[in-house]
Amino acid sequence: MSRISITLPNTLLDELLKVIPAKSKTEAVIKAISDEIRMKKKKNIKAMAGKMEFTKKAEELRHKDERLG
Predict the structure, then answer these.
(1) Most-buried pick from 5, 30, 56, 68 (CB within 10 A)?
(2) What Å distances lie between residue 21 and 1, 40, 51, 53, CA to CA?
């Protein structure tokens, strides 16, 4: 884990602590950053909808994993 020093507006930090249940300011910031990353990844995946072509049916993917032999 890296240690950094950042300057945050008190009002922003106070609001964060109200909406994110956490034991410490550090935990609240970590949760907020993790949530933001997760939402961005989700948005990117949704943007790919309809742009990919699959050659196998869902049933084949579920029950016939070629990696298992």
Answers:
(1) 30
(2) 22, 21, 38, 41
